[in-house]
Please model this.
Amino acid sequence: MKKIAVLGSGQVGEVLADGFLKHGYEVMRGTREPSKLAAWKAKSGGKTSVGTFAEAARFGDIVVLAVKGTAAEAVQDACGEGSLAGKTVIDTTNPIAEKPPVNGVLAFFTTLDDSLMERMQRKMPAAHFVKAFSCVGNAFMVNPQLPGGPPTMFICGNDSGAKSEVKKILDRFGWETEDLGAVEAARAIEPLCILWCIPGLTQRGWNHALKLLRTSPS
Ligand SMILES: NC(=O)c1ccc[n+]([C@@H]2O[C@H](COP(=O)([O-])OP(=O)(O)OC[C@H]3O[C@@H](n4cnc5c(N)ncnc54)[C@H](OP(=O)(O)O)[C@@H]3O)[C@@H](O)[C@H]2O)c1
Model:
């Protein structure tokens, strides 16, 4: 099993770190303040460690980026290109702006012509970014149980090997995978977060996930 770095001390970092542990991976979590993850490390046991963003990025064969969208590029810088070069970077982030939602609709700091993942891919061309886990709440990220069967995780990225690696992880985590192509598809995938959040932000609940339906298998 490959070693996983999970950059992020928030809910997504915790759920995905626990999911990778459940599926037998060794996990190191990264944060600006490693002391804040001491309780998680104590609870999680032997195959875990905690360090700075840069230490975790160096450790991981695969790196999961699970930080606030406004901080994602700063965290990339803190890791350094050398720690991410040649690695699959699973990008869970969404470019949510520091503004309140309007009638349940979140604001983004990017445009429909340039996504956050494209910005990060341009900054570090040697890293293999794959968008994943961005279009669903953290409660459903690992082995979701829904009456309509497995939901669909929309992914994209430029490196086909990295996307195959992410698809294998998504298979283990109980998802159908829909590969929408190269990094530019993040312009469409990131806004699915806006759509996914509307029912929750308008008090209709957070108990849903997205699924692509077809007349026949592709
Ligand atoms: N919450 C969800 O259910 C959900 C679902 C899908 C996608 N996402 C996306 O996943 C990402 C993580 O979400 P989250 O809810 O787990 O947590 P979050 O509150 O969005 O992010 C927490 C992480 O961001 C880092 N961070 C915040 N400000 C920073 C700064 N100025 N410089 C460096 N790092 C900074 C924190 O670093 P420290 O550890 O050092 O404090 C922490 O690790 C977000 O981009 C979000 O849009 C969230």
Remarks:
- Residues 8-13, 31-33, 66-69, 71, 74-75, 92-94, 96, 133-134, 137-138 surround NAP (CB under 6 Å).
- Residues 156 and 185 are 6 Å apart (CA to CA).
- The longest strand covers residues 3-7.
